[in-house]
Amino acid sequence: MNRFVRPSKYRHVFGTAAKRDYCYDNVRVSLNAWDTNMVQVNPLFVSMNWQSSGGGAFAVIPLSQVGKLPDNYPLYRGHTAPVLDTDFNPFNDYVIASGAEDSKVMIWTIPEEYDEELQEIQPVLKLSGHGRKVGQVLFHPTASNVLASASTDLTIKLWDIESGQEKQEVTGHTEIIQSLSYNYNGSLLATTCRDKRLRIFDLRSNQVVQEGAGHQGIKGSRVVWLGDSDRLATTGFSKMSDRQLYLWNTGDLSKPIKTEFIDTSSGVIMPFYDNDTSMLYLAGKGDRTIRYYEYENDELYHLSDYRDVEAQKGLAFMPKRALNVNECEIARAYKITTNLIEPISFKVPRKSDAFQSDIFPPAIGDEPSLTAEEWFSGKNADPKKIDLSEGFQVKEKQDFTPSASAEETEAPAASPTAPKNDKDVSNILYSIISTILNSNSPLPHKKVKLNNHLYIP
Protein backbone atom coordinates (compact mmCIF):
# COMPACT_ATOMS: atom_id res chain seq x y z
CA MET A 1 0.00 0.00 0.00
CA ASN A 2 1.43 3.35 -1.09
CA ARG A 3 1.69 6.15 1.44
CA PHE A 4 1.04 9.73 0.38
CA VAL A 5 3.83 12.05 1.53
CA ARG A 6 2.67 15.61 2.18
CA PRO A 7 4.78 18.06 0.14
CA SER A 8 6.63 20.56 2.30
CA LYS A 9 9.63 22.84 1.81
CA TYR A 10 10.50 22.53 5.50
CA ARG A 11 10.35 18.77 6.06
CA HIS A 12 14.15 18.52 6.30
CA VAL A 13 14.83 21.63 8.43
CA PHE A 14 17.63 20.90 10.87
CA GLY A 15 19.07 22.78 13.84
CA THR A 16 22.77 23.31 14.51
CA ALA A 17 24.20 24.74 17.73
CA ALA A 18 27.08 27.21 17.55
CA LYS A 19 30.49 26.08 18.74
CA ARG A 20 31.46 27.04 22.27
CA ASP A 21 33.73 29.82 21.00
CA TYR A 22 30.71 31.51 19.38
CA CYS A 23 28.49 31.30 22.46
CA TYR A 24 28.22 33.75 25.38
CA ASP A 25 29.87 32.15 28.38
CA ASN A 26 30.10 33.00 32.09
CA VAL A 27 26.60 34.46 32.38
CA ARG A 28 24.77 34.37 35.71
CA VAL A 29 21.15 33.53 35.02
CA SER A 30 18.53 34.84 37.43
CA LEU A 31 17.30 32.23 39.90
CA ASN A 32 13.91 33.92 40.27
CA ALA A 33 11.05 31.46 39.87
CA TRP A 34 8.83 33.81 37.84
CA ASP A 35 7.87 32.28 34.48
CA THR A 36 9.27 34.33 31.57
CA ASN A 37 11.57 33.52 28.67
CA MET A 38 14.59 34.92 30.59
CA VAL A 39 16.27 36.07 27.36
CA GLN A 40 15.49 38.40 24.42
CA VAL A 41 17.40 39.15 21.22
CA ASN A 42 17.49 41.67 18.36
CA PRO A 43 19.92 42.12 15.43
CA LEU A 44 22.52 43.81 17.67
CA PHE A 45 22.11 42.61 21.26
CA VAL A 46 20.96 39.79 23.49
CA SER A 47 19.51 40.56 26.94
CA MET A 48 19.03 38.26 29.93
CA ASN A 49 17.79 38.43 33.51
CA TRP A 50 20.92 38.49 35.68
CA GLN A 51 21.36 37.02 39.15
CA SER A 52 22.66 39.82 41.36
CA SER A 53 22.49 41.01 44.93
CA GLY A 54 21.27 44.38 46.09
CA GLY A 55 18.22 44.87 43.88
CA GLY A 56 17.44 43.77 40.35
CA ALA A 57 19.61 43.75 37.24
CA PHE A 58 19.79 42.49 33.69
CA ALA A 59 22.58 42.37 31.13
CA VAL A 60 22.64 43.48 27.48
CA ILE A 61 25.41 41.74 25.52
CA PRO A 62 26.47 42.82 21.99
CA LEU A 63 26.10 39.88 19.60
CA SER A 64 29.69 40.46 18.45
CA GLN A 65 31.06 39.91 21.97
CA VAL A 66 31.20 36.12 21.89
CA GLY A 67 33.24 33.99 24.28
CA LYS A 68 33.67 34.28 28.02
CA LEU A 69 32.32 37.44 29.61
CA PRO A 70 34.31 39.21 32.35
CA ASP A 71 33.20 38.67 35.94
CA ASN A 72 32.41 42.37 36.41
CA TYR A 73 30.26 42.74 33.32
CA PRO A 74 28.36 46.09 33.35
CA LEU A 75 24.73 45.58 34.31
CA TYR A 76 21.56 47.58 33.93
CA ARG A 77 20.71 48.41 37.54
CA GLY A 78 17.87 50.67 38.56
CA HIS A 79 15.20 48.34 39.86
CA THR A 80 15.16 47.71 43.60
CA ALA A 81 13.91 44.12 43.20
CA PRO A 82 14.62 41.28 40.73
CA VAL A 83 14.00 41.97 37.04
CA LEU A 84 11.32 39.61 35.66
CA ASP A 85 11.14 40.45 31.95
CA THR A 86 12.73 42.56 29.21
CA ASP A 87 11.79 43.40 25.62
CA PHE A 88 13.58 45.23 22.80
CA ASN A 89 11.88 48.02 20.86
CA PRO A 90 11.27 46.51 17.38
CA PHE A 91 11.81 49.89 15.70
CA ASN A 92 14.87 51.09 17.62
CA ASP A 93 17.47 48.41 18.31
CA TYR A 94 19.10 50.56 21.02
CA VAL A 95 16.01 50.82 23.26
CA ILE A 96 14.93 48.16 25.76
CA ALA A 97 12.19 47.97 28.41
CA SER A 98 12.25 46.07 31.69
CA GLY A 99 9.72 45.09 34.34
CA ALA A 100 10.50 43.97 37.89
CA GLU A 101 9.19 42.99 41.29
CA ASP A 102 9.43 46.62 42.48
CA SER A 103 6.26 47.32 40.38
CA LYS A 104 8.20 49.63 38.03
CA VAL A 105 8.66 49.64 34.26
CA MET A 106 11.91 51.21 33.05
CA ILE A 107 13.10 52.28 29.61
CA TRP A 108 16.81 52.20 28.78
CA THR A 109 19.02 53.26 25.89
CA ILE A 110 21.91 50.93 25.06
CA PRO A 111 25.43 52.38 24.53
CA GLU A 112 26.88 51.80 21.07
CA GLU A 113 30.15 50.45 22.42
CA TYR A 114 30.92 48.15 25.33
CA ASP A 115 33.04 49.86 28.01
CA GLU A 116 34.69 47.77 30.73
CA GLU A 117 34.90 50.83 32.98
CA LEU A 118 31.17 51.44 32.75
CA GLN A 119 29.87 49.57 35.77
CA GLU A 120 26.28 50.79 35.82
CA ILE A 121 23.79 52.12 33.27
CA GLN A 122 20.87 54.33 34.27
CA PRO A 123 17.35 54.26 32.79
CA VAL A 124 16.09 57.20 30.73
CA LEU A 125 12.51 56.74 31.92
CA LYS A 126 10.80 55.22 34.95
CA LEU A 127 7.11 54.39 34.65
CA SER A 128 5.19 53.94 37.87
CA GLY A 129 1.54 53.01 38.12
CA HIS A 130 1.27 49.30 38.83
CA GLY A 131 0.44 48.34 42.38
CA ARG A 132 2.39 45.07 42.40
CA LYS A 133 5.23 43.39 40.50
CA VAL A 134 5.41 43.68 36.72
CA GLY A 135 5.74 40.21 35.19
CA GLN A 136 5.67 40.90 31.43
CA VAL A 137 6.59 43.78 29.11
CA LEU A 138 5.82 43.66 25.38
CA PHE A 139 6.28 46.27 22.64
CA HIS A 140 3.59 46.82 20.02
CA PRO A 141 4.29 45.15 16.63
CA THR A 142 3.26 48.08 14.38
CA ALA A 143 3.00 51.32 16.42
CA SER A 144 6.16 53.09 17.55
CA ASN A 145 6.89 53.56 21.26
CA VAL A 146 3.80 51.70 22.50
CA LEU A 147 4.49 49.30 25.36
CA ALA A 148 2.21 46.90 27.24
CA SER A 149 3.02 45.82 30.80
CA ALA A 150 1.22 43.13 32.78
CA SER A 151 1.27 43.05 36.57
CA THR A 152 0.17 40.84 39.42
CA ASP A 153 -2.24 43.66 40.33
CA LEU A 154 -4.31 41.95 37.56
CA THR A 155 -4.07 44.85 35.08
CA ILE A 156 -2.35 45.48 31.76
CA LYS A 157 -1.21 49.05 31.17
CA LEU A 158 -0.48 50.61 27.78
CA TRP A 159 2.23 53.27 27.75
CA ASP A 160 3.41 55.85 25.25
CA ILE A 161 7.09 55.77 26.20
CA GLU A 162 7.92 58.84 24.13
CA SER A 163 5.66 61.02 26.25
CA GLY A 164 6.11 58.85 29.34
CA GLN A 165 2.35 58.58 29.88
CA GLU A 166 -0.05 55.79 30.65
CA LYS A 167 -2.66 55.76 27.90
CA GLN A 168 -4.92 52.85 28.80
CA GLU A 169 -5.55 50.31 31.53
CA VAL A 170 -6.93 46.89 30.58
CA THR A 171 -8.88 45.03 33.25
CA GLY A 172 -10.86 41.81 33.34
CA HIS A 173 -8.49 39.21 34.78
CA THR A 174 -9.32 37.52 38.08
CA GLU A 175 -5.90 35.90 38.63
CA ILE A 176 -2.25 36.46 37.68
CA ILE A 177 -1.62 37.02 33.94
CA GLN A 178 0.74 34.38 32.58
CA SER A 179 1.41 35.39 28.95
CA LEU A 180 0.58 37.97 26.28
CA SER A 181 0.45 37.85 22.48
CA TYR A 182 -0.56 40.54 19.96
CA ASN A 183 -2.36 39.73 16.75
CA TYR A 184 -0.74 40.61 13.40
CA ASN A 185 -1.60 44.33 13.37
CA GLY A 186 -1.64 44.78 17.14
CA SER A 187 -5.33 45.66 17.47
CA LEU A 188 -6.07 42.68 19.73
CA LEU A 189 -4.21 41.01 22.60
CA ALA A 190 -4.57 37.39 23.68
CA THR A 191 -3.77 36.43 27.28
CA THR A 192 -3.59 33.33 29.44
CA CYS A 193 -4.27 33.56 33.14
CA ARG A 194 -3.95 31.50 36.30
CA ASP A 195 -7.76 31.30 36.46
CA LYS A 196 -7.43 28.87 33.47
CA ARG A 197 -9.22 31.23 31.08
CA LEU A 198 -8.11 32.31 27.61
CA ARG A 199 -9.10 35.87 26.68
CA ILE A 200 -8.86 38.19 23.68
CA PHE A 201 -8.98 41.92 24.43
CA ASP A 202 -9.70 44.94 22.30
CA LEU A 203 -7.02 47.03 23.94
CA ARG A 204 -8.19 50.55 23.18
CA SER A 205 -11.78 49.98 24.33
CA ASN A 206 -10.83 47.71 27.29
CA GLN A 207 -13.30 45.04 26.20
CA VAL A 208 -13.07 41.26 26.24
CA VAL A 209 -13.84 40.24 22.66
CA GLN A 210 -13.71 36.48 23.28
CA GLU A 211 -13.23 34.30 26.35
CA GLY A 212 -13.09 30.58 26.94
CA ALA A 213 -11.79 27.82 29.20
CA GLY A 214 -8.12 27.06 28.53
CA HIS A 215 -5.85 24.34 29.89
CA GLN A 216 -7.17 23.01 33.19
CA GLY A 217 -3.86 22.13 34.86
CA ILE A 218 -2.50 24.19 37.72
CA LYS A 219 0.85 24.93 36.04
CA GLY A 220 1.56 27.82 33.69
CA SER A 221 0.13 28.13 30.19
CA ARG A 222 1.28 30.22 27.22
CA VAL A 223 -0.39 31.70 24.14
CA VAL A 224 0.90 32.76 20.72
CA TRP A 225 -1.01 34.30 17.82
CA LEU A 226 -0.44 32.41 14.57
CA GLY A 227 0.73 35.35 12.47
CA ASP A 228 -1.78 36.99 10.12
CA SER A 229 -4.35 34.22 10.60
CA ASP A 230 -7.31 34.16 13.00
CA ARG A 231 -5.86 31.23 14.93
CA LEU A 232 -4.18 30.92 18.31
CA ALA A 233 -1.97 28.20 19.75
CA THR A 234 -1.73 27.61 23.49
CA THR A 235 0.46 25.32 25.55
CA GLY A 236 -0.38 24.14 29.05
CA PHE A 237 -1.22 21.19 31.26
CA SER A 238 -4.17 18.89 31.80
CA LYS A 239 -5.57 18.08 35.24
CA MET A 240 -3.31 15.00 35.20
CA SER A 241 -0.26 17.25 34.45
CA ASP A 242 0.07 16.06 30.85
CA ARG A 243 1.54 18.72 28.58
CA GLN A 244 -0.89 19.84 25.87
CA LEU A 245 -1.00 21.87 22.67
CA TYR A 246 -4.33 23.49 21.67
CA LEU A 247 -5.30 25.23 18.43
CA TRP A 248 -8.07 27.83 18.63
CA ASN A 249 -10.34 29.80 16.33
CA THR A 250 -10.25 33.39 17.64
CA GLY A 251 -13.89 33.86 16.65
CA ASP A 252 -15.05 31.17 19.07
CA LEU A 253 -13.10 30.22 22.20
CA SER A 254 -15.79 27.90 23.55
CA LYS A 255 -13.56 24.92 22.72
CA PRO A 256 -10.27 24.33 20.84
CA ILE A 257 -10.47 23.13 17.24
CA LYS A 258 -7.47 20.82 17.74
CA THR A 259 -5.91 19.26 20.83
CA GLU A 260 -2.64 17.36 21.01
CA PHE A 261 -0.97 15.48 23.82
CA ILE A 262 2.78 16.19 23.96
CA ASP A 263 4.24 14.30 26.93
CA THR A 264 4.19 14.09 30.74
CA SER A 265 7.16 16.32 31.53
CA SER A 266 6.87 19.14 34.08
CA GLY A 267 8.43 22.14 32.31
CA VAL A 268 6.33 25.02 30.97
CA ILE A 269 6.37 25.04 27.15
CA MET A 270 7.34 28.28 25.40
CA PRO A 271 5.69 28.62 21.93
CA PHE A 272 7.16 30.70 19.07
CA TYR A 273 5.53 31.18 15.66
CA ASP A 274 7.16 32.20 12.36
CA ASN A 275 4.54 33.68 10.04
CA ASP A 276 6.79 33.53 6.96
CA THR A 277 7.33 29.76 7.13
CA SER A 278 4.13 28.89 9.08
CA MET A 279 6.28 27.02 11.59
CA LEU A 280 5.56 26.68 15.30
CA TYR A 281 8.48 26.00 17.67
CA LEU A 282 7.88 24.53 21.14
CA ALA A 283 10.63 24.66 23.77
CA GLY A 284 9.99 23.32 27.26
CA LYS A 285 11.78 24.72 30.27
CA GLY A 286 14.15 22.11 31.62
CA ASP A 287 13.92 20.16 28.34
CA ARG A 288 16.75 19.28 26.01
CA THR A 289 14.46 19.28 22.98
CA ILE A 290 12.93 21.91 20.69
CA ARG A 291 9.99 20.56 18.69
CA TYR A 292 8.88 22.25 15.49
CA TYR A 293 5.66 21.94 13.51
CA GLU A 294 4.26 23.27 10.26
CA TYR A 295 0.79 24.83 10.37
CA GLU A 296 -1.47 24.30 7.38
CA ASN A 297 -5.27 24.22 7.02
CA ASP A 298 -5.94 23.97 10.77
CA GLU A 299 -3.47 21.13 11.15
CA LEU A 300 -0.11 21.12 12.94
CA TYR A 301 2.26 18.66 11.27
CA HIS A 302 5.21 17.61 13.39
CA LEU A 303 8.40 18.08 11.33
CA SER A 304 11.25 17.11 13.63
CA ASP A 305 13.02 17.77 16.95
CA TYR A 306 16.24 19.54 17.81
CA ARG A 307 18.02 17.74 20.65
CA ASP A 308 20.88 18.89 22.86
CA VAL A 309 22.74 17.68 25.95
CA GLU A 310 22.09 20.89 27.93
CA ALA A 311 18.65 21.73 29.29
CA GLN A 312 17.20 25.14 28.43
CA LYS A 313 16.03 27.69 30.99
CA GLY A 314 14.74 30.10 28.39
CA LEU A 315 14.65 30.81 24.65
CA ALA A 316 14.28 33.72 22.22
CA PHE A 317 14.19 33.97 18.43
CA MET A 318 16.03 36.49 16.26
CA PRO A 319 13.86 38.77 14.07
CA LYS A 320 13.72 37.45 10.51
CA ARG A 321 15.42 40.53 9.05
CA ALA A 322 18.76 39.64 10.66
CA LEU A 323 19.09 36.02 9.52
CA ASN A 324 21.76 34.70 7.17
CA VAL A 325 19.63 34.12 4.06
CA ASN A 326 22.67 33.13 1.96
CA GLU A 327 22.91 29.93 4.01
CA CYS A 328 19.14 29.26 3.93
CA GLU A 329 18.82 30.08 7.63
CA ILE A 330 15.08 30.35 8.29
CA ALA A 331 15.29 30.82 12.08
CA ARG A 332 17.86 31.37 14.83
CA ALA A 333 17.13 30.67 18.48
CA TYR A 334 19.15 31.86 21.49
CA LYS A 335 19.00 29.26 24.22
CA ILE A 336 19.99 30.07 27.79
CA THR A 337 21.36 27.41 30.13
CA THR A 338 22.94 27.60 33.60
CA ASN A 339 25.88 29.77 32.53
CA LEU A 340 25.71 29.97 28.73
CA ILE A 341 23.74 31.59 25.91
CA GLU A 342 23.91 29.33 22.86
CA PRO A 343 22.77 30.32 19.33
CA ILE A 344 20.96 27.56 17.40
CA SER A 345 20.58 27.97 13.64
CA PHE A 346 17.69 26.29 11.78
CA LYS A 347 18.37 25.80 8.06
CA VAL A 348 16.73 24.33 4.97
CA PRO A 349 19.20 22.13 3.08
CA ARG A 350 19.63 23.53 -0.44
CA LYS A 351 22.46 22.97 -2.92
CA SER A 352 22.16 26.29 -4.72
CA ASP A 353 23.94 29.40 -3.41
CA ALA A 354 21.35 31.70 -4.98
CA PHE A 355 18.71 33.50 -2.95
CA GLN A 356 15.79 31.14 -2.28
CA SER A 357 12.72 33.32 -2.75
CA ASP A 358 10.31 30.47 -2.01
CA ILE A 359 11.48 30.17 1.60
CA PHE A 360 12.22 33.88 2.15
CA PRO A 361 9.12 35.96 1.34
CA PRO A 362 9.15 39.68 2.33
CA ALA A 363 9.78 39.89 6.10
CA ILE A 364 8.73 42.36 8.77
CA GLY A 365 11.16 45.28 8.84
CA ASP A 366 12.23 47.84 11.42
CA GLU A 367 9.98 50.74 10.36
CA PRO A 368 6.74 51.38 12.29
CA SER A 369 3.45 51.54 10.41
CA LEU A 370 1.85 53.98 12.85
CA THR A 371 2.79 56.53 15.47
CA ALA A 372 1.64 55.99 19.03
CA GLU A 373 -0.84 58.86 18.67
CA GLU A 374 -2.34 57.36 15.51
CA TRP A 375 -2.75 53.94 17.08
CA PHE A 376 -4.34 55.22 20.29
CA SER A 377 -6.73 57.29 18.16
CA GLY A 378 -8.06 54.07 16.61
CA LYS A 379 -6.04 53.45 13.44
CA ASN A 380 -4.76 49.99 12.45
CA ALA A 381 -2.09 49.00 9.95
CA ASP A 382 -0.21 45.82 9.06
CA PRO A 383 3.56 45.69 9.65
CA LYS A 384 5.82 47.15 6.95
CA LYS A 385 7.89 44.54 5.12
CA ILE A 386 11.30 44.41 3.47
CA ASP A 387 12.76 42.30 0.67
CA LEU A 388 15.45 40.05 2.12
CA SER A 389 17.02 39.44 -1.31
CA GLU A 390 18.38 43.00 -1.23
CA GLY A 391 20.10 42.43 2.12
CA PHE A 392 19.40 44.15 5.41
CA GLN A 393 21.38 46.93 7.06
CA VAL A 394 20.91 47.71 10.74
CA LYS A 395 20.06 51.37 11.25
CA GLU A 396 22.49 53.64 13.05
CA LYS A 397 21.69 54.52 16.62
CA GLN A 398 18.72 56.87 16.89
CA ASP A 399 18.44 59.30 19.76
CA PHE A 400 15.63 58.43 22.12
CA THR A 401 14.78 61.25 24.50
CA PRO A 402 11.37 60.90 26.13
CA SER A 403 9.59 64.14 26.91
CA ALA A 404 9.22 62.96 30.50
CA SER A 405 12.28 63.05 32.74
CA ALA A 406 14.13 60.03 34.05
CA GLU A 407 12.33 60.52 37.33
CA GLU A 408 9.36 58.29 38.01
CA THR A 409 6.34 59.12 35.87
CA GLU A 410 3.27 58.45 37.93
CA ALA A 411 0.04 57.14 36.49
CA PRO A 412 -3.15 59.25 36.80
CA ALA A 413 -4.37 59.41 40.38
CA ALA A 414 -6.67 56.56 41.25
CA SER A 415 -9.68 56.72 43.48
CA PRO A 416 -8.93 56.41 47.20
CA THR A 417 -8.54 52.83 48.39
CA ALA A 418 -7.81 51.19 51.68
CA PRO A 419 -4.14 51.04 52.70
CA LYS A 420 -2.48 47.81 51.52
CA ASN A 421 0.17 47.47 54.23
CA ASP A 422 1.84 49.07 57.25
CA LYS A 423 4.03 51.21 55.03
CA ASP A 424 0.95 52.78 53.39
CA VAL A 425 -0.57 53.46 56.82
CA SER A 426 2.68 55.04 57.94
CA ASN A 427 2.79 57.31 54.88
CA ILE A 428 -0.81 58.43 55.40
CA LEU A 429 -0.23 59.25 59.08
CA TYR A 430 2.97 61.08 58.24
CA SER A 431 1.14 63.22 55.70
CA ILE A 432 -1.68 64.07 58.14
CA ILE A 433 0.67 64.98 60.98
CA SER A 434 2.89 67.07 58.70
CA THR A 435 -0.13 69.01 57.47
CA ILE A 436 -1.26 69.75 61.04
CA LEU A 437 2.18 70.81 62.23
CA ASN A 438 2.78 73.06 59.22
CA SER A 439 -0.51 74.84 59.77
CA ASN A 440 -1.08 77.80 62.14
CA SER A 441 -2.45 75.49 64.80
CA PRO A 442 -1.00 76.15 68.28
CA LEU A 443 -0.43 72.41 68.80
CA PRO A 444 2.85 71.75 70.65
CA HIS A 445 5.53 69.59 69.01
CA LYS A 446 5.30 65.97 70.03
CA LYS A 447 7.22 62.81 69.43
CA VAL A 448 5.20 60.45 67.26
CA LYS A 449 5.98 56.76 66.67
CA LEU A 450 5.05 55.54 63.19
CA ASN A 451 5.52 51.88 62.24
CA ASN A 452 8.36 51.47 64.79
CA HIS A 453 10.12 54.62 63.48
CA LEU A 454 10.38 57.73 65.67
CA TYR A 455 9.29 60.93 63.96
CA ILE A 456 10.30 64.19 65.71
CA PRO A 457 8.94 67.40 64.13
TrEMBL record:
Any one GO cellular component localisation term in the record: actin cortical patch
Establish whether keyword Coiled coil is in the entry: yes
Family annotation (PROSITE patterns): WD_REPEATS_1, WD_REPEATS_2, WD_REPEATS_REGION
Q: Where are the WD repeats?
A: 76-110, 127-169, 170-211
User: SMART domains in the record, alphabetically?
Assistant: DUF1899, DUF1900, WD40
Question: InterPro entries, from UniProt?
Answer: Coronin, DUF1899, WD40/YVTN_repeat-like_dom_sf, WD40_PAC1, WD40_repeat_CS, WD40_repeat_dom_sf, WD40_rpt
Q: Name one GO molecular function term.
A: actin filament binding
UniProt-listed GO biological process terms:
actin filament organization
Cite the DUF1899 domain residue spans from the record.
3-67
**UniProt entry keywords in alphabetical sequence:** Actin-binding, Coiled coil, Phosphoprotein, Repeat, WD repeat
Region span, Disordered: 397-423
Does the record carry Isomerase as a key word? no
Point to the regions of Low complexity compositional bias. Answer: 401-419
Quaternary form?
A: Binds to F-actin.
Family per record = Belongs to the WD repeat coronin family.
What name appears for this protein in its UniProt entry?
Coronin
Q: What is the lineage of its organism?
A: Eukaryota, Fungi, Fungi incertae sedis, Mucoromycota, Mucoromycotina
